[in-house]
Amino acid sequence: MNRTTLSLIAGTTALAAVTAFAAFDSPSASGAAAPGAPAQLPVERTGLLCPAPSMSDIADTAYTSFTPVTKGAAGSGKARLQAATGQSADGTEGGRGGKSGKGAGKKADEPVLTPKAPGTPASGETSGAEAPALIGTADGRFAPGWTVQETTEVAAGTGRGLLGVNCTGADTEFWFPGASTATGRTDYVHLTNPDDSAAVVDIELYGKDGALKSPLGENLTVKPHASEPILLSTLTEERQADVTVHVSVRSGRVAAAVQALDDKAGGDWLAAATDPAGSLVLPGIPKDATDVRLIAFTPGDDDADLKIRLASPDGLITPAGNETVHVKSGMTTTVDLGDVTRGEAGSLVLTPTDQTVPVVAALQVVRGKGDKRETAFIPAAAAVGTRATSADNSAKGTTLALTAPGGTATVKVTASAGSEGGTPATKTFTIKSGTTQNVDAPAPAGLKGTYALTVEPVSGGPVYASRTLAATEGGIPAFTIQTLPNDHGTVAVPHAKEDLSVLQR
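Predicted structure:
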């Protein structure tokens, strides 16, 4: 994605944490600024957007908000998360091939949740098919690192299982390798506009042979303060199992996420992949994954040749029979990796064999077998950077995966207080170079409710992270995976090179 840098006054999204990446080298993550380096100051305003969670009448959705305690943050402020208000008179929105509308008994201006203080999670709930998209803002002490998780349980039907997504800021470009227009899949791209003017958006689809004919994806209008769920199969007549979706904004800005639902294998949210790059990390494949598929796409004019390696607990290894992948320009390429983790923690690491060509990628991950399968996605992720935050964790269902593809790294992980009680706890871990570790993350003492985790690199090379949330439902291993890039709690502010106060006298 193209990311917009957070300002001190009006931060909504931020430049992804980009590492000088060909050899996975990075300066120390200690946080100490070099002489003359910009100061890192807390952001003062953040905006987040949550897509409408489900079209199932038996869906139950929880929203969990968390702001880490950030040194130097303002002493006052507030955060609110409420329904998108750009709706028609009957309370529904005109999504192409879908619907979105009024909340479950809530007025449009009534917040779904209102956090009380940084350092403690706050939760809210909605249910049914009419739960709306949400627009949130946080300022003052609630803004730095504000994170909201949307988690939905669907007991039966298409896409049944556990679906989760981090609410995100608005932007102007998004890549989604791993979507589908095939029979048996129902994939929607959700577009949410936080602004006072309409946004105009193009959606392009790319399959195994190149661009799909999709004239209905051009010049789509998203009304102010509204959300549009667009069914991908209505944009083209071509049915393909693996499609890369490119969302570009002609005017305005939106938040975007793909909801990928399978008739037989559950479903989940597919978050946008990190910006196209020559080397990519896809962190946190579950150790009991029964099937893993890599989906890759290069948007430029050149083909890409990539080494495929798995960062295991013991180091980087090459999957037998899948040493490399050739990605043709403008065509979606897939690689079936099977049960690549073989019972151990793992992350996929892609690096160029020779020429560096920007690529986007994601993994489709399956747990279980037969009619007990469940699906989730891992998009290529940006590094943790200064700090990453994960909301909505449970005492038994949370797995935190940390990957250090370059140099050995030391990482501090902090568990917040529980949403209904509990004392924060901290642990420090050393992640060896080239490995992935499913760490024994701390949990609050006396935990009640859910809690948040913050991940802060202390020293060493770049760190990548993801959180898996799992819950067995009716014998089905339901799960959802969220990658953990930088939470953008601070912004770099350059030092003045000279004292200009004399000019104001």
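Summary: Residues 3 and 219 are 21 Å apart (CA to CA).
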